[in-house]
Known about the structure:
This protein has helices spanning 40-46, 73-83, 96-107, 130-144, 148-161, 172-192, 226-238, 254-257, 259-273; strands at 3-10, 13-20, 25-29, 51-55, 64-65, 89-94, 112-118, 217-221, 243-247. It is α/β, with parallel strands linked by helices. Helix 1 (40-46) packs across helix 9 and helix 5 packs across helix 6 (172-192).
Amino acid sequence: MHYKTGYVEVNGAQIRYERAGEGPTVILLHAGLVDRHMWLSQFEVFKTYYDVVCYDARGFGATTSANDVTYSHCGDLLGVMDALKIQRAALVGLSLGGKTAIDFTVENPTRVSALVPVCAALSGFQLNSEVLKGFRAQFEAAQNRGDVAAQIEILLRVWVDGPERTPDHVPADVRYQVQVMHVQLKAKQAREGQVSPPQEIDPPAFQRLAGITAPTLIIQGDMDMPDVLAVSELLEQHIPFARKVMVPHAAHMVSLEYPALFNRLVLDFLREHLDNR
């Protein structure tokens, strides 16, 4: 079984990646609070069956980039696939990673063998519930008083605990993993500056879901933010033949909360739709 880690150059960025295993390719796309290490439990299992790739998106982890480059996460994914000579891949993405996976699928349908959006965001759909507005107000107040610890705790409340739970109802190791990765992200931003916001695809994926032909498995924690629950409903309604699995007692970071269940759901789906002979 081969293992490789390194950098590929994509549009002014040095993108850090890991790759292991053999067979059809599966690419893991991380959420916006963290980096590629959120996928450790998946990477170690999936590489037994597939050629698995994970990488740090531009602005995250060990990836470096000039801060004034015009880019999109969708374009960066295409660049990574081309640099690694990957013609087609199954895309598994959580949150921001799910948005990237969906965007890429509508833009490059022939390059996608299967799609697994997990607690995904969606281009063209605003996350703007009253619950989220309340958390944003708290976050902005913490920003204004320079309270970094409070900012991080609010992000954990939103994207790890979810609106229905308190921190003591969430596995401590899950909160800790996300906290460590996000503290490292804040340190990276302080050290290197923040990259410019990515360009969005046009028209947005929200308007193009009906054109997705790749086999699609939607995975959604049932205790996530209401905005994200609404996205999962839209995906289920508008992507032809999409299947949705609700994970009970899970919020946004479902792959970290229930890694064994998550791995089984994804592997069963991939075995059904990818030729692994």
